[in-house]
Amino acid sequence: MGEKKRIAAVILFYSIACAIAWPIFLNMSWFQSWLSPLGIPAVNPYLFIMWGPGVAALLSYTFFRKKIVRHVSLFGKQILRSLLFFLGPWFFFFFLHLAFPFSEQYKPVNFLLIIPISFVFTIGEELGWRGFLQDTLRPVPALWRWLTIGLLWEFWHIRFLWISETISEGMLRTLPLLAGSIALSFLLGYSTERSKSLLVPVTLHIWANNLMQSTHWVTFVTVGLSFILWFYLLKNWHKKLARQLEN
Predict the structure, then answer these.
(1) Full-model pTM
(2) Residue among 140, 142, 5, 3 at smallest CA distance from 60
(3) What's an example GO BP annotation here (predicted)?
């Protein structure tokens, strides 16, 4: 893929992603009131926001389908490891919350909905940022690629326009979030590069969000245990599973 077409693909993707998300970010209360009569909690403005990059990726893939070489797929070449990477943290969280319950939201029966809903929400974003964009920018050195994606990712949120009453205050409050987005972009970018599995960054993204939304110690212990599992899986990602089981 030539440089001009690569730039055109990135511009097309980013324009569509922003065109879908920005009107919702800036008119959140209106969209919430518009969707609330449906009575389906999972169908809320954030579903459409997070699928902005996903829709943009699908349309951009279609337009440039003969030019972009895809390296990243849902499971990569390791279906079992990808599923273990995704389901392992939920296993830890389920049993920890069963022993130390702290929220009615996480009743055992609710996990049948929480897990697939978390996946559906997050796969939209990751299909765009780590799926389409990481493949499209592949000729760029990895560190610059992840930095670029982190900057584009944070600006796509346009937090400085809605997080505070004034833009100047919003920009100050956005700076730590910018640093967080870039750091997370490096983590997700590396894990995607290592695994070629989209389910890996989806998992990391979900639990990064969970950490921000729940400060209970059960969530932190879950992520701590999960990091051990994630590190082991990524370290041994390309080893044959049969050989590992024999040892």
Answers:
(1) 0.91
(2) 5
(3) proteolysis
